[in-house]
Amino acid sequence: MANLTTNFIGIKSPNPFWLASAPPTDKEVNVRRAFEAGWGGVVWKTLGAEGPPVVNVNGPRYGAIYGADRRLLGLNNIELITDRPLEVNLREIKSVKRDYKDRAMIISLMVPCDEDSWRDILGHLEDTEADGVELNFGCPHGMAERGMGGAVGQVPEYIEMVTRWCKKHTRMPVIVKLTPNITDIRKPAEAAKRGGADAVSLINTINSITSVNLDSFAPEPTIDGKGTHGGYCGPAVKPIALNMVAEIARSRETHGLPISGIGGITTWRDAAEFMALGAGNVQVCTAAMTYGFKIVQEMISGLSEYMDEKGMTNTSELVGRAVPNVTDWQFLNLNYVTKAHISQDDCIKCGRCYAACEDTSHQAIAMSPDRTFTVKDDECVACNLCVNVCPVENCITMIELPKGAVDERTGRPVTGYANWTSHPNNPTATAAE
Amino acid sequence: MSNSPLTPGVVAARLPAGAYADNFSDVQPVFDRHEARVAADRCYFCHDAPCMTACPTSIDIPLFIRQIATGTPDAAAKTIFAQNILGGMCARVCPTEQLCEEVCVREVAEGKPVEIGRLQRFATDTLMGKGVHPFTRAAATGKKVAVVGAGPAGLACAHRLALKGHEVTVFERRAKPGGLNEYGIATYKTPENFAAREVEWLLKIGGITVKTGVELGRDVTLDQLQAEYDAVFLGVGLAGVNALRASGEDLAGVRNAVDFIAELRQSDKPAVAVGRDVVVIGGGMTAVDAAVQSKLLGANSVTMVYRRGKDKMSASEYEQDHATQSGVRIIYGAAPVKVLGTSAVEGVEFAYTHDGPNGLEMGETFTLKADQVFKAIGQTLTAAPIAKDGAKLVKQQGKIWAGGDCAAGGEDLTVTAVAEGRDAAEAIHASLMA
């Protein structure tokens, strides 16, 4: 069986699956249960400065988006950082870490934006034997109104400044958690790197309103008739997170900066995808909040089986494997031609491919009176929509035309690689030399 | 308790008093909201959906299921009723396993269709439960139409005509409207007086007068109706019952299954007499309804005998399974030779059948003990007030239209009758307004 042991910026864990800083990691009782279930590490829910703890709302904190059969696809929250006293959290962190020395214990932090506050909180952690800290520059709700969390994460200069303070005042590795509520994720990552961060973790939650109650006309979750934007997470955000991870992994300025991948990871496959795009490990929250801690067992067995199949013995062989294949649109091969193909053996004749193609795409699927659906190669632009809407996996596939074959749509034979940069329609094309 | 399943002869009260309510309760209860949402989520919203094509009334099934899935069951009900005003009854009695659900792409893919019938019932029950009638009549046209027969075809025709603004009078020979919905369907498929409640709800459209106890040919003639009304619709059903053409058919204890089913629907169940050893001859839904209900009344043994093979049986696989699971034994490939007995039936002699060059041939014989025999080998048209196409009425002749079981073409299903009644109404409307 593949070795899932992971060394992330010097922090060892028996597997790359950590629980993200969130309600599941708020208390000793939860974290012990998580470690018993098999999680490789936790990022303890964000601690604030010493003194009276923050308070949370006493009405609903979460809102949700559902798919078929009420599968939770997206979750939004308006919970703040831990609302328990600092000393209680510190005592519990120390207690758990003492009993689970092989697991990663990271402490998430969020204090006001001055050096004293950060020096003080870091001082308090010395005694816990935690393995590292994560700077919460991400939470988009509540704390951001007080100049913390997302308010810091949206200003690269602040990220760099605070990171530098933290590196100065602690010997522990520093992970900077990034907010996705920004136009270019590379800028805060670069700032973290300049400040000396050992790693970045992303994404934090996305600013959102999940739904509106059409009786009370208030956003949900609703607190006494009012609602506010919250942080969105869960399977729905995974594509956004994957792109941001990939942008950092492939950027010249940040390439090689360790990344802890976060955002909608629900299965081993999601985790493997983040790792292939450059994440050294992953953090999970919503999947655990939806199904409980036991899901890590599927993640462990699934990743092991996959790595065995691929002949990988260590997670480091997977990390970053897909990064070289993430490119800009302009470099995509315009001479790569595929055509959709419908397997008549697998087709259940629902006709969704036909409706999608006929109504909204390229009118490239024919329907016979006996409901046989076939692709018109002379119309098919290979957009993939039929594949995406078909309820049967692998019933519709994209078949690549070999070099020399004639594309019936264009009447031209398939030739070798050529991209937009040298395309005759591109006014700024450079002739291929 | 004086009687038991073992009491010889045709007697009532074979079961403890409390057993009847359970036995004759809803065979498939309505979905609750959660069940409906889960079931609705399985629909793929197919293009030009096969289920919709398979429905004789062409209900837009993907649309109504999507309306359920999005939390608007009343809108779903309106989608159903727009095509089939008896969508509530059809949701209960349609052989969906031979219609919409048989062709559901998920039946093809997984052997588990979307439960269209039950979803339809959820939607229609939801709206009807509110006592809401979703349609309003068009302005009065001043035209008068007579509808003969208050069964599914007649009611569907009357509703659609009233909707268009015509003044409709429905003549029904029986004491209650509803036709086979009221008299011809197993109790457990439509308990709690649903057929009568549905008629009451349907009539809320207004503009329909129902006259019961009036029989065509006896109390009123077709000529009178033609003289008095602008158009006539005949939905008289099939009042005759086919004979066995086997000796001993007239012995006491031999009965038409349709009469037994009607009695059951109109009586307290413990008061209905049933044999100790019941034999039902036939292979359709009527045979299954009679056989299963005999068992539910406490008959000790019930055997259904059908002259052809399982694949030829008109009762669906689902109905056959329901029968056997209820304790009914089904013998395929045997035809009655004679009914045995002196004053009352004591048994039936059957012969095994096989296909020969001249059709079905009889072979080896066997005898089943019986103190009650139900005949369920089909119904026929008793009167022929207008021209016939084969054994049934032509669909239109002059200002007379016909639809439902009495009319040529189509299957003898409630849903088919509804479609024919509705379509005749549209044709009558077009003709009256031309």
UniProtKB/TrEMBL annotation, chain A:
<dbReference type="GO" id="GO:0004159">
    <property type="term" value="F:dihydropyrimidine dehydrogenase (NAD+) activity"/>
</dbReference>
<dbReference type="InterPro" id="IPR017896">
    <property type="entry name" value="4Fe4S_Fe-S-bd"/>
</dbReference>
<comment type="subunit">
    <text>Heterotetramer of 2 PreA and 2 PreT subunits.</text>
</comment>
<feature type="domain" description="4Fe-4S ferredoxin-type">
    <location>
        <begin position="371"/>
        <end position="401"/>
    </location>
</feature>
<dbReference type="Pfam" id="PF01180">
    <property type="entry name" value="DHO_dh"/>
</dbReference>
<keyword id="KW-0408">Iron</keyword>
<keyword id="KW-0560">Oxidoreductase</keyword>
<dbReference type="GO" id="GO:0005737">
    <property type="term" value="C:cytoplasm"/>
</dbReference>
<dbReference type="Pfam" id="PF14697">
    <property type="entry name" value="Fer4_21"/>
</dbReference>
<dbReference type="GO" id="GO:0046872">
    <property type="term" value="F:metal ion binding"/>
</dbReference>
<comment type="function">
    <text>Involved in pyrimidine base degradation. Catalyzes physiologically the reduction of uracil to 5,6-dihydrouracil (DHU) by using NADH as a specific cosubstrate. It also catalyzes the reverse reaction and the reduction of thymine to 5,6-dihydrothymine (DHT).</text>
</comment>
<feature type="domain" description="4Fe-4S ferredoxin-type">
    <location>
        <begin position="338"/>
        <end position="370"/>
    </location>
</feature>
<dbReference type="GO" id="GO:0051536">
    <property type="term" value="F:iron-sulfur cluster binding"/>
</dbReference>
<dbReference type="InterPro" id="IPR005720">
    <property type="entry name" value="Dihydroorotate_DH_cat"/>
</dbReference>
<keyword id="KW-0411">Iron-sulfur</keyword>
<keyword id="KW-0479">Metal-binding</keyword>
<dbReference type="InterPro" id="IPR017900">
    <property type="entry name" value="4Fe4S_Fe_S_CS"/>
</dbReference>
<protein>
    <recommendedName>
        <fullName>dihydrouracil dehydrogenase (NAD(+))</fullName>
        <ecNumber>1.3.1.1</ecNumber>
    </recommendedName>
</protein>
<comment type="similarity">
    <text>Belongs to the dihydropyrimidine dehydrogenase family.</text>
</comment>
<dbReference type="InterPro" id="IPR013785">
    <property type="entry name" value="Aldolase_TIM"/>
</dbReference>
From TrEMBL, chain B:
<dbReference type="GO" id="GO:0051536">
    <property type="term" value="F:iron-sulfur cluster binding"/>
</dbReference>
<dbReference type="InterPro" id="IPR036188">
    <property type="entry name" value="FAD/NAD-bd_sf"/>
</dbReference>
<dbReference type="InterPro" id="IPR009051">
    <property type="entry name" value="Helical_ferredxn"/>
</dbReference>
<feature type="domain" description="FAD/NAD(P)-binding">
    <location>
        <begin position="143"/>
        <end position="421"/>
    </location>
</feature>
<dbReference type="Pfam" id="PF07992">
    <property type="entry name" value="Pyr_redox_2"/>
</dbReference>
<dbReference type="GO" id="GO:0016491">
    <property type="term" value="F:oxidoreductase activity"/>
</dbReference>
<feature type="domain" description="Dihydroprymidine dehydrogenase">
    <location>
        <begin position="22"/>
        <end position="130"/>
    </location>
</feature>
<dbReference type="InterPro" id="IPR023753">
    <property type="entry name" value="FAD/NAD-binding_dom"/>
</dbReference>
<protein>
    <submittedName>
        <fullName>Dihydropyrimidine dehydrogenase subunit A</fullName>
    </submittedName>
</protein>
<dbReference type="Pfam" id="PF14691">
    <property type="entry name" value="Fer4_20"/>
</dbReference>
<dbReference type="InterPro" id="IPR028261">
    <property type="entry name" value="DPD_II"/>
</dbReference>
